[in-house]
Amino acid sequence: MKPGVRALGVAESFRRDRDRSTVVGAVVRASRVADGFSFSSATVGGTDATRAVIDCYRRLDREDVRYVLVAGLALSWYNVVDLRAVHEAVDRPVLSVTFEASTGLERPLREQFDGDALERRLETYRRQPERRPVDLDDGRAFVRAVGLDGDPRRVVRAFTPEGGRPEPVRVARLLARAADAPAADGG
User: Fold this and answer.
1) Cα–Cα dist 92/100, whole Å
2) C-beta atoms surrounding 146 within 10 Å
3) What is this structure's pTM?
4) What is the enclosing helix (H) or strand (E) of 129?
5) Which domains does the chain possess?
6) Integer CA distances (angstroms), 92 to 13, 62, 69, 89, 181, in order
7) Radius of gyration of the chain (CA)
């Protein structure tokens, strides 16, 4: 992949004492240069994470972004991202990247929600593509991809220099955590 190709990484951070999470988008080139950031928020335990990911992309107004990489599928305490809806809204390939083996979200969703809240999350979750393992130099990632022509491993590997995390997602997570950290004055 050419060094100037850009991906938008989206990650979040939340504090249990707040009802909103910080969602950050970081544009990073395949050469590892960060060159743009955007911020949004999502409801902790809500159903608006898809909108937050789309907001991060739109606020940047960057036509040069080729891929959107989302850190996981359930942000902000089971706020499930609809990767297909993100792809339709931004007209870019969208990849959800996770780093731990999992049996899926159905059981945890059933443990935390019921009624319409559960059904809405399950419906969104079941629409998503299957996770596929991607072996990296420093570990393994699990990827769901929508709208991608070709092998998702190529994209994930191109943006993963070391440490087992794609750089756009790693940078977005660092920024989200920093933005979400309590202020020095306790605020």
Assistant:
1) 25
2) 21
3) 0.94
4) none
5) 6-180 (3.30.2170.10)
6) 24, 12, 10, 8, 31
7) 16
